[in-house]
Task: inverse folding
């Protein structure tokens, strides 16, 4: 009994071969995607670490600048009372001075009137 290869036998072999090649290509494509994904993750981690380092350095610099500003503000506050005068305080002091000058003026007038006699 001789076996004759038919068209369906050939097509079954060809289809099996094509499916095997497609499966191999898809498998390679998926593995390349995974590898690419892993490389991207590593790159993103490196970038994140770089930016976190920069952010922490900036936070340190900012906190040092804030401390410096707080020190300068405290120095300014301590000098404020001796350097600057509030408007109300100025008017109060000027009123006292005017009262004192008026008082001195009246005393001088009294002295002058006594000396005229």
Result:
């Amino acid at each position: 009994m001789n076996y004759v290869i038919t068209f369906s036998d050939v097509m079954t072999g060809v289809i099996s071969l094509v499916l095997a090649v497609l499966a191999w290509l898809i498998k390679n494509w998926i593995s390349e995607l995974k590898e690419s994904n892993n490389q991207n993750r590593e790159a993103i981690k490196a970038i994140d670490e770089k930016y976190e380092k920069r952010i922490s350095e900036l936070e340190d610099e900012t906190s040092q600048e804030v401390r410096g500003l707080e020190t300068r503000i405290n120095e300014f506050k301590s000098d404020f009372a001796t350097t600057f005068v509030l408007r109300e305080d100025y008017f109060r002091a000027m009123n006292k001075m005017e009262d004192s000058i008026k008082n001195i003026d009246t005393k001088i007038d009294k002295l002058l009137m006594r000396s005229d006699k």
